Amino acid sequence: MKFKHLILCLCGLWLALLTTKLTAAPRPNIIIFYVDDLGWQDVQLNDVDDPCAFETPNIVKLAESGMNFTQGYSAAPTCSPSRAGIITGQHPAKIGLTHVSLGALTSGKKSDPLLEPYLQGHLDLNILTLADALKANGYRTGHSGKWHVGLNAASYGFDVVNQDRGPHRGMGDRTKDFATANDKQYPLSKEKYPPFSDKKPEGISYPYDEVTESALKFIDESGEQPFFLNLCHWMVHWPVLTRNGELLEYYCDKFGQPFPPKPGDMTLPGQQNPYFAAMVTTVDWSLGRIVDYLEKTDDPRNPGKKLIETTYIFFSSDNGGVETHGKEIISDNAPLKYGKKHSEEGGVRVPMVIAGPGIPQGSQFDGLINQLDYFPTILNLTDAKIAAKDAKELSGLDITPVLQGKSKQVLDASGKARDYLFWHFPHNSMRSMKSAIRSGDYKLYKRYFTNDYELYQLEKNGQRNDYEEMNDLAQNPEYRSVVERLGAILEAELAANHAEGPYLNPDYTDKKTPSADLGDSKFDRGS
What we know:
The model is unreliable at 1-23 (pLDDT under 50). It is built from twelve helices and 20 strands. It has helices spanning 2-23, 57-65, 79-88, 130-136, 210-221, 245-254, 274-296, 345-348, 374-382, 388-393, 400-403, 480-496; strands spanning 29-35, 67-69, 72-73, 114-115, 140-145, 160-162, 227-232, 311-317, 324-325, 328-329, 352-355, 363-365, 369-370, 421-425, 434-439, 442-447, 452-457, 459-460, 463-464, 503-504. Residues 1-24 form the signal peptide. Residues 28-383 form the Sulfatase N-terminal domain. It comes from Thalassobacterium sedimentorum.
């Protein structure tokens, strides 16, 4: 009887496991849609003061189907550290990858008292990546587009890799060398897409984009396997150009400029550069192509549902926008201060939207969110498991409760609300060599050149106050306690993350003391 009872129990357990397997919801797909150098004010999401001049209907549509983060931040003000931060879930300072100059020795100018730190040639291969984690949990992993953290994306857990630039390459004459229907490399699409105009009431064609097409191919070939797609556009980075003549003409007309444009730099202030406008709308078009495919395609693992119903899309940019390049005016981050290569708001606050199953449509979150939060959040959404030692290394927080509308705050594992975010950028010019911390209404900067602090009150009781960061409060006695509190937290984080700061320049012409002093030392053979 005991043996028979054991057999019945085992059969019951097997049936229960089989039923659970058959009825369990398929694991969701994950898409990170990452844009290069797209500023917070370069899309039609967070219009402050003047509305955005660039048309981004698909980004707006994505926000209407999910959640817009008005205070979303990149992990760094430049490309490589932000990308490394997303893919590892670790702060750039912690992994020693804080700028784009990977493996380059910089001697510095003799007029500069400080030197930026040397960076390794590529992202450490021993660090667990998001692709590694999801692959180990049964996901098919793919990367399309820009990588820029050294080596190749295939070295970091991606099954399928295409690092092509798409149409974003230099061209002979940006005023007229546009793609045609018979173009061998960038043929214009037969399908028509927005924007619509009196000249083109049915829409316009777009040049072939290998970045988008390889992403669509990856999704299509994933079949019944859940997938993770890391889609990273090279746009809207310099060079500022477009092969889409019809789109350029549309923006020239909209901005009241001649078409074709005159040769030379575009120098009109604000958001009046038609080349840049065309790049922004092209990226938006790419997002629309991806979403349209998800909406029309059945999920083979979930009969009766489309892929859009089982896929999370994380949309953002690697850093803030670039306002100028030489004499060319590209865009305008106002009211945010500065842009790329600066830890000020214009360099790290970025557009951010997340959409997918269970996320309330048309929702908005105004709290502090960092792209470092993506890794732990995606682990939760996909029910993916990693080793405890790897989980300990993650710098971000799981924001799933926020995404599901169950919490109005980002909480850590102990239930404590997030109090701050910090950045470390000891690079570029003396003016930009800073670390920064954002907490509540305040943002504090540690300036390495002058070895002191700046303090700005960005908001007052949650409302806009000094987004321009014009009123430095650091020397005001009334705010001394704020400087001391945030300064202490920042210093502690820099130490805990082994942040490497700038060094004294031994070739600095105005130095009054040696860069280093060598003391006397004796070796005692008997010790």
